[in-house]
């Protein structure tokens, strides 16, 4: 887990909500436009949009770029744990304590990451984007969070018992824990970045609005 990337706690401290001076009225009118166009397929919509310049693409793709940065961190940690299970041997340069810490940090950082998203990012996006709708009929990305957390809870409980010495770490048991939520995790990491990609974001937001997003 030790690398040059900032952790999610630091990201939480940096998050700011876009100013609402003009966005409130703009959001209401734009939201109506999105509702009116709900029946239009994404393919048809894309055909009506001009090609983005390189500069505009960077603006519209900035959230996807930042999200992928953190997602790669989670992929790296999960893969390190899972490879050890498959090989039936933890990394040679890693003590048992360090290995368990990798798993617990994955749970902690991913939990913080999701908390930041659901508190500061998704509510803003959900004003216009059905892909981030919360509540009773939550969008798939939000439902994936719930599935992931069920798996993480089991992993955290197991690793804490191993850490305290209550039980001995068994890689076959750890693999079962990881496999129980691995598929939904990897699907979510890919799908979320794609949803935040430039070609999708441009359907809902202006470049200026993208510059004020909390990432």
What would your notes on this structure say?
It is a single chain. With 215 residues, the protein is an all-alpha fold. The protein has one domain (24-29, 53-211). It has helices at 8-14, 23-36, 42-48, 54-60, 62-87, 96-125, 140-164, 171-195, 198-201, 207-211. The longest helix is centred in the middle third of the chain and has 30 residues, at 96-125. Residues 1-44 have low confidence and may be disordered.
Note poorly predicted spans: 1-44
Reported for the largest beta sheet, the result is: none
Mean pLDDT: 84
Structural category is mainly alpha
Question: What's the alpha carbon Rg, rounded to whole Å?
Answer: 20 Å
- What portion of the residues fall into strands of 2 or more residues? under 5%
| DSSP helix fraction | 55-70%
Name the assembly state.
single chain
The number of helical runs is: 10
Which term fits the overall shape? elongated
Integer count of domains:
1
Question: What is the number of beta strands?
Answer: 0
**N/C terminus separation:** 22 Å
Order of helices and strands: HHHHHHHHHH
């Amino acid at each position: 887990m030790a690398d040059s990337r900032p952790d999610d706690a630091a990201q939480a401290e940096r998050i700011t909500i876009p100013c609402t001076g003009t966005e409130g009225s703009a959001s209401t009118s734009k939201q109506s436009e999105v509702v009116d166009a709900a029946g239009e397929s994404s393919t048809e919509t894309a055909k009506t949009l001009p090609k983005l310049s390189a500069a505009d693409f960077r603006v519209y793709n900035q959230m996807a770029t930042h999200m992928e940065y953190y997602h790669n961190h989670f992929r790296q940690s999960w893969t390190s744990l899972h490879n050890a299970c498959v090989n039936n041997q933890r990394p040679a340069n890693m003590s048992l304590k360090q290995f368990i810490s990798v798993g617990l940090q994955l749970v902690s950082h991913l939990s913080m990451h999701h908390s930041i998203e659901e508190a500061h990012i998704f509510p803003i996006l959900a004003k216009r984007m059905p892909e981030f709708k919360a509540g009773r009929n939550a969008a798939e990305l939000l439902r994936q969070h719930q599935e992931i957390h069920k798996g993480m809870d089991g992993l955290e409980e197991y690793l804490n018992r191993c850490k305290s010495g209550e039980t001995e770490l068994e890689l076959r048991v750890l693999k079962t824990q990881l496999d129980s939520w691995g598929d939904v995790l990897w699907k979510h990491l890919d799908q979320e970045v794609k949803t935040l990609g430039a070609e999708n974001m441009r359907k809902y937001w202006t470049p200026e609005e993208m510059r004020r997003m909390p990432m």
